[in-house]
Design goal:
By secondary structure, the protein is mainly alpha-helical. It has helices at residues 6-17, 22-32, 41-53, 73-81, 83-94, 106-124, 130-149, and strands at residues 57-61, 67-71.
Length: 150
């Protein structure tokens, strides 16, 4: 999807617009590509670590123990030096097809991928209470019924 270093530029440009945490960045990239590309946490977080190591971002604590990334003056200078590459990348992102899967509208693909990612992240945290598992099952059942009726 990206040439070497392009994801770094894209993430930094998004962070320049608004400080973000990793999950927000995954969703934003997916939205920019109309659901046709959703970066995995295994791609996003090492890239964010690189941006931090280079001094282009700083990590701020956020709610729930998450890390929020904010651009630094060095990061802004790096963006300015790479403006042409960023403009080309943003133009490419804006010209994606209507959906990432054959015949499936982009908002549906985005929502499906969002649900998969949210479930993976929640299940990785380990055991959940009976109450939490019932709440999740109820939400998923309601979503399934809504899809069936549409």
């Amino acid at each position: 999807m990206f040439d070497y270093g392009e994801l770094r530029l894209l993430l930094l440009a998004i962070i320049a617009d608004a400080p973000s945490h990793g999950y927000e960045l995954i969703k934003t990239v997916e939205d920019r590509f109309g659901g046709s590309y959703s970066p995995s946490p295994g791609v996003i977080y090492p890239t964010l670590a690189w941006l931090d190591d280079m001094g282009y971002t700083v990590i701020e604590p956020a709610e729930g123990g998450r890390k929020r990334y904010r651009i630094t003056p060095e990061g802004e200078a790096f963006l300015a030096a790479n403006r042409a590459a960023i403009d080309e990348l943003m133009a490419r992102a804006g010209h994606r097809g209507p959906g990432g899967r054959e015949g499936v509208p982009a908002p549906v693909v985005r929502a499906m991928e969002n649900l998969k990612l949210a479930m993976r992240l929640r299940l990785r945290r380990g055991e959940m209470s009976e109450e939490a598992s019932e709440a999740i099952a109820t939400a998923l059942d309601l979503a399934a019924k809504t899809v069936e009726k549409s």
